[in-house]
C-alpha cells in the first residue's frame, strides 16, 4: 500500500518546490524591505489563494492526462453572470449556487467530449473557451453590468485576525483535495487513468465517468475562482480571466506535476502557487512584459528541472549543448572520415530514446 | 480507446494516401457551402472586394497553419505561433519606423526562425512536452514583443500593403501568395527528404528511429519551419494593418489549430495535408465573411468558430471510429500496437 503510494507522490518531488519557496522567501526578505511583515505575507497568500483555487481543477485534469484551456472564459462567464443577476435584483445565495452549477456543466461538457467522443482535450477545451467567450459577449452585450453581491465581496476581500477569508477557504480546500486524491477511490482512479488510460480500461475502472468528473471539477473551480475575482474587484469585466490561463498551468507544472499525467499532487501545485506569487512580488518593478517573460522562463526551467530530476535514469537524458553539437555535423564536409566514424549507429540512438529496454 | 493512427487501416501506400487526401474533402465541401451562403446573404453578388476581404483574411491564417501542420504532423503542437506572429509583426513595425523597412522584414523572419529553432531544441533536447514548452516560450515571445513595442503603432514600408493585400486588376495579390504558400508547403512536405522523414516520424516514431531517420533533427526543423511561417504571417499582418500591434497574435492560438483541424490533419500526427490546411484557412475567413454579410451579431463569431473546431474534430473521431468498426476485426492486433506506441504513457 505505502509502496504503491510512493510511486505516485514521491517525498522528494513534494519537497523540492517547497525548498524553492523557502529560497524565494529568503531572497525577497533580503531585497525587499518589510517583505516578511504579516501584512505583506497576508496579501501574498491571498494572491496565491486565487491562483491556487483556480488551479485545483487544472491539477486534477492534468493528473488525468488532459488539459483545460477553457478556464479563462469559464472564470469570466461566472463573474459576468453573478454580477449581471445582481443587477437584475436576483442577488443571493441561490445565484451563487446556480453559477457554480453552470461551471460544473461547462466542465462536464468538456469531459464528455474528451471521454466519450475522444476529442483531444486541447482542442475540446480551446473550442469551449471560444464558445464561452461568445456566450459572455452575447449575455453582457459587450459591457458587463452590476456589482458582486456583498457577501461575495466580503468572502473575497475580508479578513479576520489578519488572515484573509480566502486563505482560510483555500486551506480547507487544500485539505479536502489532498484527502480526496490520496484516500478515495476517485483519487486512485485519477492517478491510474493518468498513468495509463488503456490499462485502466482493461482493469475495469470507470474511466469515462472519472474523466468527466475531473473536468466537471475543473469547471467548478474555475467558476468559483470567477466568483471570487468578481468579489475582489467588485464587478465583472471582459477579459478578466485571460490572465489566469497561463498561471493555472504554470503553477501545476512548477509544482512538478507531470503534464503527461499520473504523477504529481495538489500539494505540489500549492507550492507552485506560493512560489510564483513570491517571485512576482519580490520583483515589484516588473511590468506586464517582464511578467510574461518571467512566467515563461520559470515554467521552462522547472519543467526541465523536473524532467531531469525525475527521469527514470536519474540523469540528463540529452543535454541542450549536446543537442547543438548534433547540428555541427551538418556543417562538416561529407567526405570527412571523422563524420563517418561519429555517425551514430541505430542502436545507441534507440538507447537514448529509452526504447532499448523493450 | 485513445485516438490512434489510422495508418494500419489502409493496406497499401495508395490506400493510405487516399485516406489522407479524403480528410481534406470536408473542408472543401464546407468552403463551397459557405461561399454559396455568402453570395446569398450579400444579395446574389460576389464582388472582387468580397474576394479580396476573404483571401486577405485567409492568407496569414494559411501561413501560420502550414507551419502548425508540420509540427502537428510530428505528433507535437506549437502554441507559440501567436507569440511569434506578434514578435515578427512588432519587429517590422518598429524597424520600419527607424527607416529599416526591408531589413526589418528580413529581421522579423530571422527572428521567427530563431524562435522556432528555440522551440525545437527545447522540445527535442530538453524533452519538455511540446504543449508546455511552446506555451512557456509563447509567453516569453509576447513579453519581448511588449518590450519592443509597448503600444500599437509603428509604420510599415510603403510597398508592403500593396504587396500583401492589394489586387492586380480583379485578382487579389493574396490569392497568388496563398497559391505560392500552398505549393511551397506541398513541395516541402512531399518532395524533400525532410518532408518524407517528417511524415514517417509522425506515423510512428519507433519505426522512424529504427529506419535510421534523424528523428530529433527532423522534429527540430519542423518547429523551426513553424516559426518561419508564423513570422511570415506576422509580416503579412503588418502589411494588412499598416502598423504593429503587440496583441495581434493572441487570436491565432485557437485559429491556427482550428485551421489545421478543419483541414483534416490528425492531431496525433502522421496524417494531414497542406491543401487541407489552406482550405481550412479559407473556411475560417469565409465564416466571418458570412456572419458579417448575414448581419448577425459579431459576437456570434467566437461561438461559431469554437463550435466548428470541436464539430470538425468530432466528425473526424467518429468517422475514424466507424472506419475501425467497418474494417475487419482481424486488424485488431495491429491497431493495438499502433495505439500503445502513439500514447505518451508508453515511453
What this model shows, in words?
The complex is a heterodimer of chains A (358) and B (347). Chain A is mainly alpha-helical. Chain A has 2 domains: 308 residues, ABC transporter involved in vitamin B12 uptake, BtuC; 32 residues, no CATH class. Chain A contains 17 helices and 2 strands. A two-stranded antiparallel sheet of chain A has the order 1-2. Chain A is globular, with a radius of gyration of 23 Å. Chain B is built from 15 helices and 2 strands. Chain B has a two-stranded antiparallel ribbon with strand order 1-2. Classes of the chains: A mainly alpha (358), B mainly alpha (347).
Name the descriptors.
A: mainly alpha, two-stranded antiparallel sheet, 17 helices, globular, B: 347 residues, two-stranded antiparallel ribbon, 15 helices, disordered N terminus
Strand order of the largest sheet of chain A: 1-2
Question: How many structural domains of chain B?
Answer: 1
Helix content of chain A: over 70%
State the order of secondary-structure elements of chain B, H for helix, E for strand.
HHHHHHHEEHHHHHHHH
Rough shape of chain A?
globular
Beta-strand content estimate of chain B = under 5%
Furnish the topology, listing elements before pairings:
The complex is a heterodimer of chains A (358) and B (347).
Chain A: H1 2-8, H2 11-31, H3 38-63, H4 71-87, H5 93-115, H6 121-140, H7 150-157, E1 159-160, E2 163-164, H8 165-183, H9 185-195, H10 197-202, H11 207-233, H12 245-254, H13 266-282, H14 288-309, H15 320-331, H16 337-342, H17 346-352
Antiparallel strand pairs in A: 1-2
Chain B: H1 13-22, H2 25-41, H3 48-73, H4 81-97, H5 101-124, H6 130-148, H7 160-165, E1 167-168, E2 171-172, H8 173-190, H9 193-203, H10 205-210, H11 215-241, H12 252-262, H13 274-294, H14 300-326, H15 332-342
Antiparallel strand pairs in B: 1-2
Helix pairs in contact in B: 2-13, 3-8, 3-11, 3-12, 3-13, 4-5, 4-6, 4-11, 5-6, 5-11, 8-9, 9-11, 12-13, 12-14, 13-14
Amino acid at each position: 500500500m505505502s509502496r504503491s503510494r510512493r510511486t505516485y507522490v514521491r517525498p522528494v518531488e513534494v519537497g523540492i518546490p517547497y525548498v524553492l519557496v523557502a529560497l524565494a522567501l529568503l531572497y525577497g526578505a533580503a531585497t525587499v524591505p518589510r517583505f516578511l511583515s504579516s501584512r505583506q505575507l497576508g496579501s501574498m497568500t491571498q494572491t496565491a489563494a486565487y491562483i491556487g483555487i483556480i488551479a485545483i481543477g487544472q491539477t486534477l485534469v492534468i493528473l488525468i492526462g488532459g488539459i483545460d484551456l477553457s478556464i479563462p472564459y469559464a472564470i469570466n462567464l461566472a463573474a459576468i453572470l453573478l454580477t449581471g443577476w445582481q443587477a437584475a435584483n436576483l442577488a443571493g445565495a441561490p445565484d451563487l449556487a446556480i453559477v457554480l452549477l453552470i461551471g460544473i456543466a461547462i466542465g462536464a461538457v468538456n469531459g464528455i467530449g474528451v471521454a466519450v467522443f475522444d476529442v483531444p482535450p486541447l482542442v475540446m477545451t480551446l473550442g469551449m473557451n471560444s464558445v464561452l467567450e461568445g456566450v459572455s459577449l452575447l449575455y453582457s452585450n459587450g459591457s458587463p453590468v452590476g456589482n458582486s453581491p456583498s457577501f461575495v465581496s466580503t468572502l473575497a476581500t475580508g479578513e479576520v485576525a489578519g488572515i484573509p477569508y480566502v486563505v482560510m477557504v483555500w486551506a480547507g480546500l487544500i485539505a479536502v483535495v489532498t484527502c480526496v486524491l490520496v484516500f478515495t477511490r476517485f483519487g486512485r482512479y485519477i492517478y491510474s487513468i493518468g498513468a495509463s488510460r488503456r490499462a485502466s480500461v482493461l482493469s475495469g475502472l470507470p474511466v469515462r465517468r472519472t474523466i468527466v468528473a475531473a473536468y466537471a471539477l475543473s469547471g467548478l473551480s474555475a467558476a468559483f475562482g470567477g466568483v471570487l475575482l468578481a468579489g475582489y474587484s467588485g464587478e465583472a469585466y471582459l477579459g478578466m480571466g485571460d490572465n489566469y490561463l497561463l498561471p493555472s498551468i504554470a503553477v501545476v507544472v512548477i509544482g512538478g506535476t507531470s503534464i503527461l499525467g499520473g504523477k504529481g499532487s495538489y500539494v505540489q501545485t500549492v507550492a507552485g502557487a506560493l512560489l510564483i506569487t513570491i517571485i512576482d512580488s519580490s520583483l515589484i518593478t516588473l511590468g506586464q512584459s517582464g511578467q510574461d517573460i518571467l512566467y515563461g522562463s520559470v515554467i521552462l526551467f522547472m519543467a526541465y528541472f523536473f524532467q531531469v530530476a525525475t527521469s527514470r535514469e536519474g540523469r540528463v537524458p540529452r543535454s541542450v549543448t549536446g543537442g547543438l553539437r548534433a547540428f555541427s555535423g551538418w556543417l562538416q564536409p561529407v567526405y570527412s572520415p571523422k563524420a563517418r566514424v561519429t555517425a551514430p549507429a541505430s542502436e545507441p540512438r534507440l538507447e537514448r530514446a529509452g526504447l532499448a529496454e523493450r | 480507446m485513445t485516438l490512434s493512427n489510422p495508418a494500419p487501416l489502409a493496406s497499401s501506400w495508395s490506400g493510405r494516401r487516399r485516406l489522407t487526401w479524403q480528410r481534406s474533402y470536408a473542408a472543401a465541401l464546407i468552403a463551397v457551402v459557405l461561399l454559396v451562403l455568402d453570395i446569398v446573404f450579400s444579395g446574389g453578388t460576389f464582388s472582387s472586394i468580397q474576394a479580396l476581404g476573404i483571401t486577405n483574411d485567409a492568407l496569414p491564417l494559411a501561413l501560420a497553419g502550414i507551419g502548425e501542420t508540420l509540427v502537428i504532423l510530428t505528433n507535437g503542437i506549437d502554441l507559440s505561433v501567436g507569440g511569434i506572429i506578434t514578435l515578427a509583426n512588432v519587429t517590422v513595425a518598429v524597424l520600419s519606423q527607424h527607416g529599416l523597412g526591408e531589413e526589418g522584414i528580413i529581421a522579423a523572419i530571422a527572428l521567427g526562425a530563431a524562435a522556432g529553432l528555440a522551440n525545437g531544441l527545447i522540445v527535442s533536447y530538453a524533452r519538455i512536452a511540446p504543449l508546455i514548452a511552446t506555451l512557456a516560450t509563447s509567453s516569453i515571445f509576447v513579453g519581448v514583443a511588449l518590450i519592443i513595442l509597448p503600444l500599437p503603432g509603428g509604420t510599415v514600408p510603403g510597398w508592403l500593403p500593396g504587396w500583401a493585400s492589394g489586387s492586380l486588376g480583379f485578382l487579389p495579390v493574396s490569392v497568388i501568395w496563398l497559391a505560392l504558400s500552398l505549393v511551397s508547403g506541398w513541395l516541402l512536405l512531399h518532395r524533400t527528404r525532410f518532408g518524407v522523414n517528417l511524415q514517417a516520424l509522425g506515423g510512428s516514431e519507433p519505426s522512424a528511429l529504427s529506419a535510421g531517420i534523424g528523428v530529433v533533427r527532423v522534429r527540430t526543423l519542423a518547429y523551426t519551419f513553424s516559426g518561419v511561417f508564423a513570422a511570415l504571417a506576422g509580416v503579412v499582418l503588418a502589411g494588412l494593418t499598416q502598423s504593429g500591434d503587440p496583441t495581434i497574435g493572441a487570436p491565432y492560438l485557437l485559429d491556427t489549430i482550428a485551421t489545421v483541424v478543419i483541414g483534416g490533419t490528425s492531431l496525433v500526427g502522421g496524417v494531414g495535408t497542406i491543401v487541407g490546411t489552406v482550405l481550412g484557412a479559407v473556411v475560417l475567413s469565409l465564416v466571418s465573411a458570412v456572419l458579417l454579410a448575414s448581419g448577425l451579431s459579431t459576437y456570434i463569431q467566437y461561438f461559431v468558430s469554437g463550435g466548428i473546431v470541436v464539430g470538425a474534430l468530432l466528425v473526424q473521431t467518429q468517422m475514424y471510429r466507424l472506419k475501425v468498426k467497418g474494417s475487419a476485426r482481424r486488424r485488431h492486433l495491429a491497431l493495438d500496437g499502433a495505439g500503445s506506441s502513439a500514447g505518451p504513457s508508453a515511453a
